[in-house]
Design a protein that fits this description.
The structure holds two protein chains of two kinds.
Chain A: H1 8-36, E1 41-48, E2 53-59, E3 65-72, E4 77-85, E5 95-100, E6 110-118, E7 121-122, E8 129-131, E9 143-145, E10 150-152, E11 157-162, E12 169-174, E13 177-178, E14 182-183, E15 188-193, E16 204-210, E17 215-223, E18 228-234, E19 241-247, E20 260-263, E21 266-267, E22 277-282, E23 288-295, E24 298-305, E25 318-324, E26 329-334, E27 344-353, E28 356-365, E29 369-372, E30 380-389, E31 403-406, E32 417-421, E33 426-431, H2 436-439, E34 443-452, E35 457-463, E36 469-473, H3 474-477, E37 485-494, E38 497-498, E39 502-507, E40 516-518, E41 526-529, E42 540-546, E43 556-560, E44 566-569, E45 579-588, E46 591-601, E47 613-618, E48 621-626, H4 631-634, E49 640-645, E50 652-658, E51 664-667, E52 673-683, E53 686-687, E54 691-697, H5 701-728, H6 730-737, H7 795-800, H8 830-839, H9 872-877, H10 882-885, H11 912-918, H12 923-926, H13 932-937, H14 963-967, H15 971-982
Parallel strand pairs in A: 10-17, 40-46
Antiparallel strand pairs in A: 1-2, 2-5, 3-4, 3-6, 6-7, 6-8, 9-11, 11-15, 12-13, 12-16, 14-15, 16-17, 18-19, 19-22, 20-21, 20-23, 23-24, 25-26, 26-29, 27-28, 27-30, 30-31, 32-33, 33-36, 34-35, 34-37, 37-38, 37-39, 41-44, 42-43, 42-45, 45-46, 47-48, 48-51, 49-50, 49-52, 52-53, 52-54
Chain B: H1 16-44, H2 69-98, H3 105-132, H4 152-201
Classes of the chains: A alpha+beta, B mainly alpha.
GO biological process, one term (chain B): ciliary neurotrophic factor-mediated signaling pathway
GO molecular function (chain B): ciliary neurotrophic factor receptor binding
InterPro entries (chain B): Ciliary_neurotrophic_fac_CNTF
């Protein structure tokens, strides 16, 4: 690329020249501009301290744009620095600009300077002008600004505190709140409160504290500018105007800071500031009104305009009076302003009587009276009047003062009469007491006249004013029969005279009983319905009374027109829990006729009393019975009874009995013991408290005894049958159970007649057995055994042994002993018999039925007492007691007595151990030998036969296996055995 | 020592019931002043830092034990009279500057204190009359600053100071009246001694 070439020296010179020219040019231009934008001169300041506004003026030449700078002098802080456009005042040639400070101007000194600007070109700053604050050293006081300022709600406010020279700043308090502060100068501190709320009527205190704790304060009032509504003007006197308005909001500024009002540029008097509705009057009707409301925070203007005739608000009538009669009255009044006489008015008359109000409206020109008709005699009334303009009605005027009056008295109305008949010839005529509206004056009394149509006699009775019933006894008035009628007439009297008579026809008829229906109460009463009755020529009467009452009842009634077929019966006297009977009568010229009955409750309640409960046991069942609850206590229609078992702490429902006449209940399946039952009657409202009764279920002794007797009877009958059969079949029985035992064939003559041997012990029941045998001292004596069966326990033996007073025959029994002498049918072994006869000349016969395997054995030990000498057979049948015990019957056997010469001389019975050791009386187990042969086979040991005493024994010989059962046989068996024995041929 | 009021030489003496009644009124007023001060502090949201005691507004000769009953009662009566004047003026200024708002408990209590103070003043006046034997001369209110400050905040502090002043002098009255019997007894003894000395000289 080609490049031009030049010498460096020439280039540098050229640049230097060009730069110099440029600088010179700029310098010339700047000098020219300075000459055009002159420095502002004669800067001056003026302040509006309340508005915190600083007015700055200066001479600024032709410039229209200026830079303004405002500094806090002491701290050299810029408060304001802006370019503003200011036009020159053509008259004074001054430029002026207003600056509003956020801080009170007293807070600290401000430095202000101005310079002219033209685009980017500015002049020099003017001389600085200082607006001196109150924090100058020359002003040493403790100060707070602004003082007593009134501010709108929601505004921001800055407060500054200048502490005393030499003191330290502590805090600024706004109301009860400590605020944050900024320092403006050496002694000045400021705080800004934003969005201030309304203050109280005493204002909000702002207090500054320094190190001396001496407060400096100010009061600020924060409120609203006025706001009005409902501004309207009207006239009362048809001449002047009275304007009224409402303050739409409370300005929160009162007293000297409160709102001032001017109406058509005339000041309105200050009324009560707390009243929201204000008023201001103008003497003449002007047609147009302007109301200005003004307070320190602003003003509000409101206007109204109207013609007088459209804004007539009549005043209240005055001097109200009345001309009074019994049934009507004329009310009179006057007007405050005479101008009303030509004013067409419409008036309202409000008539009050016992709280009820009736309004009448009348109209007319200059209206001053009204006639009130349809009044009641002897009644208190109160009347008030208010009026409005009949044409172009604006609003009603104020009510007049209430005027009260009482109408004149009059004769009373005829009383409402009815009757109550008790069913016999007595009863009472009843009438309703006359109300004040019916009596028309104070009632002085009642006159009741009974007139019998047959007798044509009158009986008149006078009653006091408080009487409402007259008793009647028809038999005293006329000989009463079913077709006789008596007319009762009742007349009420007051000071004005008697009333019209009220009649009721009394006629005794045998009224057929009518069915009773149930009346159900609704919210409004008892609705009753019936079929129309053609006989009811003069209407119907519905009568009601407390069902409990039967004679001379306080009855109430209502009379109905003919053609009525329903009524709603309501009474303030109705009470819950009371049954009422309603009766419908038709009214005829011949008297009354009962058509229908109802009964009902206003409200059913639970019964007030409980049933009377009784219980009775029927076997294992319990019958609960209870009585009827009296009607007065039922307090509702009984629906039934609930039966509870209340034996435990809780009631357990066990049954229910509907109320259909039955008042009993059977509780079945009860266990022995005590039971409690509760019966509760219930209505639709619930159960009563219940009646409780206790019963103790016991075993039925009658039945038990009857069962026992029946069992015994059956048993006896069975025994009789068996006995009879046995008796009839005794031969068979004998053959079967007691066959004849063939007589033994003995060598020699054994035919000596043997008889029973009764051993009669001595008087002391001691058997003295003297052993006369020399060769065998061991052959013992006969042991006296008490007369008793051989009970194994031996106890009875012991007891019986004591009875030894009478000499008794010593007998040995096995099981059953026949009292009769035992025939010596079965001679024992010859040895024994012989020895018996030889020794004691006593014949003791043992008679018994023995098993074939058994034998009668007398075990006598020749050696006396050695165990070795006990027979083996004895061992084989022994039942306990050890080998030495021996279980058989051993009359002669000594219980191992060492002394061979035993003499039973003691009158005492055998001791228990002795008996026990002897092994008791068991002939079946001990008697083995029936023949001397066998005796010999036994080793020459046939001691029984060698006994000096022979014993006869009678017994059944049963198998060994039945041995123990034998011992337990009852007396019945004994009896049976005897029977069989007696049956022996 | 039984409380027995005796006649001071040369004049009537206060009876016991008048002293008791005046004491009771002063005690009642003291309670009402306490309530009023509390209501004022509450309505102005002012702390005790702000409401510092700044000297007495009522000026009376210094009381001392050397003063006799009459002088004591006179000082008391004078102070209470000044209090009432100040209180009336405070109420008026307050109504002028801050009135017009809804009347509340504070205004009711303020009125009650003013009326009770008048009643107490009347009773103390009776006592003074009983002691002095002559109609009570109203002390001059000259020199008493009745206008108060013009700055609203200072006016509020001034009103509070007046309430405090009423409270102070009410309490002083209670103390004085309660100690009156002993002072009277001393004077009676002194008087008797003087009589005795005079009779001896004769």
């Amino acid at each position: 690329m080609p490049r031009s070439s030049s010498s460096p020296k020439s280039k540098s010179l050229c640049c230097r020249v060009w730069l110099t020219c440029a600088l010179l040019g700029l310098s010339a231009a700047h000098t020219l501009a300075k000459d055009v934008l002159g420095v502002p001169q004669q800067v001056s300041l003026s302040a509006n301290m309340v508005a915190q506004q600083l007015s700055i003026s200066w001479l600024g030449g032709a410039a229209t744009t200026f830079d303004l700078m405002i500094l806090r002098t002491e701290l050299n802080e810029t408060v304001f620095y802006e370019t503003v456009s200011v036009t020159m005042n053509q008259v004074s040639g001054l430029h002026q600009w207003n600056w509003t400070s956020l801080d009170p101007l007293e807070c600290t000194s401000l430095s202000i300077k101005v310079r002219s600007r033209d685009g980017q070109v500015t002049s020099e700053w003017s001389n600085t002008q200082i607006f001196q604050g109150n924090d100058l050293p020359s002003n040493e006081n403790f100060q707070l600004y602004p003082q007593e300022r009134i501010m709108p709600v929601g505004s921001n406010a800055t407060f500054c505190c200048i502490v005393k020279e030499g003191q330290l700043f502590r805090s600024i308090q706004y109301g009860s709140r400590i605020t944050t502060t900024t320092r403006l100068s050496r002694r000045s501190y400021a705080t800004t409160v934003v969005n201030q709320g309304p203050s109280s009527s005493w204002g909000t205190n702002v207090v500054c504290f320094d190190s001396l704790k001496e407060p400096q304060g100010t009061v600020v009032f924060v409120g609203y500018p006025p706001l009005l509504s409902d501004f309207v003007c009207e006239t009362y006197d048809l001449t002047s105007a009275l304007c009224q308005w409402n303050e739409a909001r409370d300005t929160k500024l009162y007293g000297k800071r409160g709102t001032r009002f001017t109406l058509n540029k005339r000041d309105c008097p200050k009324g009560r500031q707390q009243q929201r509705q204000k008023k201001c009057s103008v003497a003449q009707w002007e047609g147009n009104w302007t109301l200005i409301a003004e307070n320190p925070l602003g003003q509000y203007i409101i206007t109204d305009s109207a013609e007088l005739s459209h804004r007539v608000h009549p005043v209240a009538p005055v001097n109200v009076s009345a001309v009074i009669h019994a049934w009507n009255a004329t009310v009179l009044w006057q007007w405050t302003y005479s101008s009303y006489s030509s004013l067409a008015l419409v008036c309202q008359v409000e008539l009050s009587c016992h709280g009820s109000k009736t309004n009448y409206t009348v109209s007319g020109e200059g209206l001053q009276s009204v006639v009130l008709s349809d009044l009641y005699p002897y009644e208190d009334y109160s009347v008030q009047i208010r009026c409005g303009a009949q044409q172009n009605f604006w609003k009603w005027g104020n009510w007049s003062e209430a005027f009260t009056f009482k109408t004149n008295p009059y004769v009373p109305d005829a009383p409402d009469v009815w009757m109550w008949l008790n069913g016999d010839s007595t009863g009472q005529i009843v009438w309703k007491p006359l109300t004040q509206r019916q009596s028309h004056d104070q009632i002085t009394g009642y006159e009741v006249t009974f007139w019998s149509t047959e007798e044509n006699l009158q009986h008149t009775h006078i009653f006091s004013p408080d009487t409402t019933a007259a008793p009647i006894n028809l038999t005293q008035i006329a000989p009463f029969s079913s077709d006789t009628k008596v007319i009762a007439t009742v007349i009420a009297k007051n000071t004005e005279g008697p009333s019209q008579p009220a009649n009721v026809v009394i006629r005794l008829t045998d009224a057929e009983p009518v069915a009773v229906s149930r009346a159900v109460y609704t919210d409004k009463g008892f609705p009753l319905f019936w079929q129309s009755n053609d006989n009811a020529t003069c209407g119907y009467v519905v009568e009601w009374h407390n069902t409990v009452c039967t004679r001379n009842c306080p009855v109430d009634w209502i009379k109905l027109d003919a053609g009525t077929t329903d009524v709603l019966v309501e009474s303030a006297n109705f009470q819950p829990g009371v049954r009422y009977t309603f009766s419908l009568f038709s009214c005829t010229s011949e008297g009354r006729e009962l058509l229908q009955h109802w009964q009902g409750y206003v409200q059913e309640l639970v019964p007030s009393s409980s049933v009377i409960l009784s219980t009775s046991q029927q076997g294992s069942d319990v019958l609960l019975t209870w009585g009827e609850i009296p009607l007065v206590s039922r307090r509702g229609f009984l629906l039934g009874y609930n039966i509870y078992n209340s034996s435990d702490s809780e009631l357990k429902l066990i049954g229910n009995v509907p109320d259909k006449g039955s008042r009993s209940y059977i509780v079945t399946g009860l266990k022995e013991g005590s039971h409690k039952f509760t019966v509760k009657a219930y209505t639709s409202a619930g159960e009563d408290t219940g009646a409780t009764s206790s019963v103790t279920v016991e075993t039925n002794m009658d039945w038990l005894i009857l069962e026992i007797l029946t069992s015994l009877g059956i048993t006896a009958f069975f025994l009789i049958i068996v006995t009879f059969i046995c008796y009839k079949k005794r031969k068979w029985v004998k053959k079967a159970f007691y066959p004849d035992i063939p007589e033994p064939k003995l060598p020699g003559d054994w035919s000596r007649t043997q008889g029973p041997l009764d051993v009669k012990p001595s008087s002391n029941s001691i058997i003295h057995i003297v052993d006369k045998s020399d060769h065998d001292p061991s052959k013992e004596m006969l042991v006296a055994i008490p007369e008793e069966d051989e009970d194994e326990d031996g106890q009875s033996m012991e007891d019986e042994s004591v009875d030894t007073d009478e000499p008794t025959s010593l007998r040995y029994y096995n099981q059953v002993v026949d009292e009769r002498p035992i025939r010596p049918r079965y001679p024992d072994s010859s040895a024994s018999s012989a020895s018996s006869l030889d020794s004691v000349r006593t014949d003791v016969t043992y008679t018994g039925i023995q098993t074939s395997g058994s034998s009668l054995v007398f075990q006598l030990d020749p050696a006396g007492s050695s165990d070795d000498h006990q027979p083996h057979a004895d061992l084989s049948v022994s039942c306990g007691g050890g080998g030495g015990g021996g279980g058989g019957y051993r009359p002669q056997m000594q219980p191992r007595a060492q002394n061979d010469d035993i003499i039973l001389a003691s009158p005492e019975p055998l001791d228990e151990p002795l008996v026990a050791s002897a092994g008791g009386y068991k002939p079946q187990s001990s008697w083995h030998l029936d023949s001397p042969v066998e005796a010999e086979e036994s080793g020459g040991r046939a001691p029984s036969l060698g006994s000096p005493t022979s014993v006869a024994s009678t017994q059944f010989l049963l198998p060994d296996g039945e041995e123990h059962a034998e011992a337990k046989r009852s007396s019945a068996t004994t009896w049976f055995t005897n029977l069989l024995s007696s049956a022996k041929p | 020592m039984a409380f027995r009021l005796t006649r001071v030489i040369g004049g009537p003496e206060p009876n016991r019931s008048t002293v008791s009644r005046a004491t009771a009124i002063a005690e009642q007023l003291s309670q009402e002043c306490s309530i009023l001060l509390e209501l004022y502090r509450k309505k102005e949201s002012l702390t005790t830092d702000v409401l510092m005691d700044d000297g007495r507004l009522v000026s009376v000769p210094p009381t001392s034990s050397q003063l006799d009953i009459r002088d004591t009662l006179w000082c008391l009566h004078s102070a209470l009279l000044q209090c009432r004047s100040l209180l009336e003026r405070a109420i008026a200024r307050e109504e002028e500057e801050l009135g017009g708002g809804k009347k509340g408990d504070y205004e009711t209590q303020r009125k009650m204190v003013k009326e009770r103070l008048s009643l107490l003043l009347s009773n103390v006046g009776e006592l003074l009359k009983a002691v002095d034997g002559a109609p009570v001369l109203s002390p001059s209110l000259e020199g008493l600053e009745l206008n108060g400050p013009t700055i609203l905040f200072e006016l509020k502090l001034w009103v509070y100071r007046i309430f405090k002043e009423v409270d102070y002098w009410t309490k002083t009255t209670i103390t004085t009246l309660q100690g009156l019997p002993s002072v009277m007894a001393k004077e009676h003894t002194r008087t008797a001694r003087v009589r005795s000395t005079r009779s001896t000289r004769r």
